[in-house]
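thread: overnight batch results

M.L. [08:02]
morning all. the overnight job finished for the chain we discussed friday. pasting input first so we're all looking at the same thing
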Amino acid sequence: MALYSGPQNPSMRQFPGPSSTASTVIVTNGSKSARAARRLKWAGVVVLAVGLAAALTIYRVAPARSSGDAANYNIVGGQVFASPDENSAEMQQVERLGGKPAVYALEFHRWFLSLWHGRRLAWTLIVLCVAVALLCFHLAGLMADEPDG
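M.L. [08:03]
and the structure it wrote out:
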């Protein structure tokens, strides 16, 4: 005995009723905004899962520390001396040319560029994918609350 028989309109389906005759039951798949909210929730789940998987892969593959630490040492006459700061002369020059705001802007620029390399990239990716997933969930909640009219 088939559960579905009758018209091909998916909102009008006939199911066997308590008696031997078939009764018509109206089954709706929800409103357009409810379907869009479900899709948006699934998009948030997919973004979160793919982003966390990518971040985990990047974290495992990326080296623990950068190899740029050798720049903090000077070798003079076969002896190794630690440099006080590799960027101190450059920062003094930037401060002379542009003042403290230029120094702060350069430090921010270097920090921002460091977010896109190595293990910091994994943490940046985690923050971004969680933020996008939360935005998807929030928008889906707002769409589900909207009345259709």
